Amino acid sequence: MHVFCYVPFSGFLLLVIFLSGRVIQLRKKNVQIHPFKQEKGIQQFPLFIAFAVVLFLWLFEILRPVLHLSYSILPDWLIEPVFQSLILKSAGAVYILLSLILMGKTLHDFGHSFRMGLDKNNRGKLITTGIFSFSRNPFFLALNLFFLGTAMIIPGIFLIVFTLAAIVGSHLFILKEERFMLKNYGESYKSYCKKVRRYL
User: Fold this and answer.
1) How far apart are alpha carbons 195 and 134 in whole angstroms?
2) Helix, strand, or coil here: 81?
3) Nearest CA to 97 among 193, 191, 4?
4) Which terminal Cβ of the chain has fewer Cβ within 10 Å, N or C?
């Protein structure tokens, strides 16, 4: 088994450690991470279950090579490699490394303004310095790089489709977030958008 198969799961563990560590740090400082009001209802439950199942399958597929498991929950045609390219696997490993560096820098530069979700009562301050002077959405850029790198290392149809869906989903969330930011930060956010691109 090639050494590249260990990169996605190791990277995933590091991302979880980065995010968990930041959340713990902020909670110790009594910073509210989650929005005070969360719109949850019975209508969203099936969507949550579907998301959890897909995420579990994705996690299983990146863990399977590490544990040398020959079987999968998914059909063979969804997990068989679409290509075998050492160059693409190498590039995928570089993307994952870049995503980890970018995520670490992003969480650092967020300071006390790191939030999960959108709430006008719990918005934090507008961050425009550090990594945010190069990208308005370095958090999602880091995640997209990670998913892309993973699909390049383990190029089954399922992981490729998951990556495309994750990129489209994050873009749609960014568009929603931009409307929220414009509404809550007004001219300062509009001015920021003129200076810094959405991704790079």
Assistant:
1) 9
2) strand
3) 4
4) N
